[in-house]
Structure prediction request, 482 residues.
Amino acid sequence: MDASAAASATDAARGRLDLTSLPTPETLLDRLRDPLGAWLPTRRWFAHRPAGPAPQPLDVEVEAWAGLRVQADVAVLWTVLAVDDHRGGRARYQVPLALLDPDAEVAEDALVTRTDEIAVADALALPAGRDAVLAVLAEGSGALGPGLRLLADPAPTAQAAPPAGPGASSRVLSGEQSNTSLIHEQPGRTPVILKVFRLLGDGENPDVVLQSALTSAGSPHVPAVLGSARIAFGERRTHALVAQEFLPGVEDAWRTMLREAAAGRLDEAALRELGTVLARVHADLALALGTVPTGDAEARRMLAQMRGRLTDVASSVPAVAAHVEVLGALLHRAAEVPWPAMQRIHGDLHLGQVLAAPGRGWVLLDFEGEPLRPLAERLQEDCPLRDVAGMLRSLDYAAAVTAREHGIDAAGWALAAREAFLDGYLAGVGTPPQDPATRALLAAFEADKAVYEALYESRNRPDWLDIPLAALSRISATVCEG
Prediction:
């Protein structure tokens, strides 16, 4: 046995990764295109699966990469993968990859491929991979490679992400879909949640921008941002990840409201406070990031989008067509009333994005907006009533799910819950509770959200289609009465 073979055998016996025996990273990544093409469609966060009953292999291009960390038993490569977006373009995903000894133990779900020379896995599924990602923020470092630059940004406050130390542990938060979140815990330190954005756009990520602005403003109503990192590849530049304080053992408002609706309880004071908190968050965002007066042209543009969505969905969901004429009258009415100023908003607000934190009150999460909307749209100012309408729809869903799961008529609960939340919000922004302009605009935004829900339910949960249809019937009846 020659010296190199003996060294490789010794490394294998120790479970070490012998990088010197592998092809160059470019060659290795090129060989991974097919395994990655089979693995990507199985990921919950992957949003560009080809049509068909079963996941189909994809044509994957490794567009850029950089080495993040090399250790005795693992090397981490930060990669940007490009796939067909089915609209004539390309979608880019962030996939940190762990290179391991071919005999390394890897959970089947995390494994991309295994050959005689190497095992490749999702780095975020491995403790060593998660440590490498956390180190980017803890050390203020980054990575540089062919076509890719990664660099940590300072935290908006003096508090920073903790370094790994004695007793530190990390895990992947279950239930994530559009992104992957890691929980890092260390005795005596604030737990950290680190969100790695999987689908990459071009421009600043609103989740980082808005929550950093709120952290800088001293808002207690969002988890404090502890750091972030930017990534550049080709001509694109955006955020790669963000770290925030983690609130362990805290229940989201969706679970809280489901339990209360099932028990026939309604904490009106808590719901009014939720409305007040949203008003405070909107005020802080307006102060930090500015507002834009809503002129007639902008109002007409937004209403035209709503009309277009209504027409498109009515052609796909026949039950929606019955509401086109009445909702058209509602949109016409919304064009004749004054609009609030446009500003940055949450963009995808529902009960699942709100935590009830003991001693702190309501805390809002995930300011990324609807993840599948183009980033350019999510970076624009929007009407703050869109967030209000989203929460009203979520309360309506809580009542409907309660009825479906427990056979309890929660319609009265929903009406009271909606009004309590709305009372808190309107008081927070200084608007009279029955202001006709605000009520007309809210009805328009809520109808638009229900139309979107009707399309979603028809495609994904047809037996839930009655939930948004009931909302459209209620809103249409109100328009006719008015």
In short: Confidence is low (pLDDT under 50) at residues 3-14. The first helix runs from residue 3 to 14.
